[in-house]
Amino acid sequence: MESMTKHMYLKILKNSDFYEFIFLANSERKKYKGNKIELCAIVNAKSGLCSEDCFFCAQSSRYKTGVNVYPLMDKNEILKKAIEAKKHKVKRFSIVISGKKPSKKEIRKIAESIETLSKNGINPCASLGLLNYDEICYLRDSGLQRLHCNIETSERYFPKICTTHKFSDKVRTIISAKKAGVSVCSGGVFGMGEFWSDRIDMAAFLKELAVDSIPINFLTPIKGTPLQTKKPLSPIEALKIIALFRLILPDKDIRVCGGRPLLGEFSSWIFLSGANALMTGDYLTTKGKSYIEDLKFIKNHGLEV
């Protein structure tokens, strides 16, 4: 499947039976990932007042969404949330902040939090916007294991969902992280109006960047944002997106994150569609499944954490 062209994928998506497509993806998941499911969790460590205009995001200062606004959390508060996640078999815990990038003072405070997490046996990740190489190295030396920086969509479609920074800015941060020897988590949001060709281009580019984990988020239209009237994806289309990314990136972690509720009664198909990782607990501005619910969900499918 890895040697297939964009045209071939488009043809399969159009003509193949849904169940055959899912079967192929599940076979690849089992081949490369077995029956193990990896859990991650996040803390919204700084919320709101973002200068950027990402059309899907509740945290932009340009939109009236009623999102909570608060400054960077204290390291002890972050640690408390991380310890709770660790108790429930969460492997990775990410510090996520709003904004284009943190200030120098915030970077120092985040480095302290990362160091504190490491000392407590927690695998620290972070999602901090458009960091440069030196900033990433500084955080790496504090114990950062993985940096999250979504490309969000294809390069072609990116200007339709954000105008305050460029696709190339995202790529620069990802390349800097790889150069610094830091693992990279990069994916995006689906259901923003993009085409299947955009999704294929996005997956192929993430493969070219050699990212380690691909978070898949399904758009939850938020009142006040430019995408508030977007119709949510159908469960079948969402599952086909998961399967597509498994087939194009067979040996990577395909991680289902925000927007899981839209799957409804098809939620049990997440793993059959190729996912081998989940974000558990709450998301940035929307509620998620509890740790206990997700652990039970995984166990009921004959899988293990």
How would you explain this protein's 3D organization?
The chain is of the alpha/beta class. The protein is built from 9 helices and 9 strands. It has one domain: Aldolase class I (TIM Barrel), CATH 3.20.20.70. The protein is 38% helix and 14% strand. A 9-stranded parallel β-sheet has the order 5-4-3-2-1-9-8-7-6, with helices on one face. Helix 5 (133-141) links the parallel strand 3 and strand 4. Helix 3 packs parallel to helix 4 (104-119) and helix 7 packs parallel to helix 8 (235-248). The longest helix is centred in the N-terminal third of the chain and has 16 residues, at 18-33. The mean pLDDT is 95. Homodimer. Belongs to the radical SAM superfamily. Biotin synthase family. It is an enzyme of class 2 (transferase). GO terms for molecular function: 2 iron, 2 sulfur cluster binding; 4 iron, 4 sulfur cluster binding; biotin synthase activity; iron ion binding.
